[in-house]
Amino acid sequence: MRNPARRARATALALGLLVPLALSGCAGDDGDAAGTPGAGESSAPAEVESGPVTVQDDTGAEITLEQPAQRVACLTMICVDALTEVGITPVAYRDALSLDERYAGPDAEMREVTGGFGEENVEDVVLATPDLVIGLAGAQDGLRDAVERAAPLYLVDPRSWEDSVEFLRTLGDLTGTREEADQAADAFTARVEEAAGERSPLTTLSMFGEPGSLGVDSVETPVGSLLAEVSEYPWPAGDDPFASVAVEQIAEVDPDVVFAQAFSASDDDQPLSERLATDPTWAGMTAAREGRVVEVEADVWATGRGTISLGIVLDQVQAELAGS
């Protein structure tokens, strides 16, 4: 994470500084059903494809399983997202969003993986007894040696919504649920193609952070590439897909609609648009003047990355653009 905005984003999300989800349950305390070794039994279909599986992850590492995995530990939210699509509950999770009813759900029996982002407690992973562990490339690479004493580590790094779809298909191969994965992948692809056929001429922006530390989802991110399908989205990646920007740079483009993800290194949960309102450059932009700065679910937009999350993003984007 080379630029300040991306690093601040990851830190804020990992420390749980976003507005808490309204969840009815959590997991991971020693001695309860989710915190005991072997808890979190997968809800994989009873009949899955059998035999060896070999794939290459996004770092180029070859991952080989003697049989499709039925117990998967998720160190990144796209893993939970994709498993939900194929009807499997992870045996371990690290993102609180996993407990949302749109994903594994508040009652899912899973072990919580503790520790900082990229410095997860490997013991939590081991105690979940996974067949496979899935993490985020560029963040959890350093865990490979320790994690692979328990199970193979697959690192994913989606740079577009198409990459997210392809990961879903690969996850289907890894878990013997390719048929279910293909159905979900094809349905999402068809939905994006339909939305692209009604592409809006408005210029949009997905931005995140806090005043003084702002970033944008460039076209080389799942969210940015998705917005580029349905609107004008002139935000190239440069050296980093999550590019740092100043308000003045945003004003030069002057987007018609801004989707804002507010988070902070402090406990300030004020909407990002309100925190920027006193900046005269921001206040003079079209989106701010016309009240078209839309505060969105930061955790879904920032960490989801999978087809369920991107479907939620598309819902919000289409609803706003439909009013144009």
Automatic annotation (TrEMBL):
Superkingdom, taxonomy of origin: Bacteria
By its UniProt entry, which InterPro entries does this protein fall under?
A: ABC_transptr_periplasmic_BD (IPR002491), Bact_iron-sidero_bind (IPR051313)
Q: Where is the Fe/B12 periplasmic-binding domain?
A: 71-324
Instruction: Spell out the Pfam families in the cross-references.
Output: Peripla_BP_2 (PF01497)
What residue stretch is flagged as signal peptide?
1-27
Disordered, as annotated region = 32-52
Write down the Gene3D superfamilies for this protein, in alphabetical order. Nitrogenase molybdenum iron protein domain
Which keywords, in A-to-Z order, does the entry hold? Signal, Transport
Where in the cell does this protein reside? Cell envelope
Q: What family is reported?
A: Belongs to the bacterial solute-binding protein 8 family.
Could you tell me what this protein is called? Answer: Fe/B12 periplasmic-binding domain-containing protein
User: What organism is listed for this UniProt entry?
Assistant: Nocardioides nanhaiensis
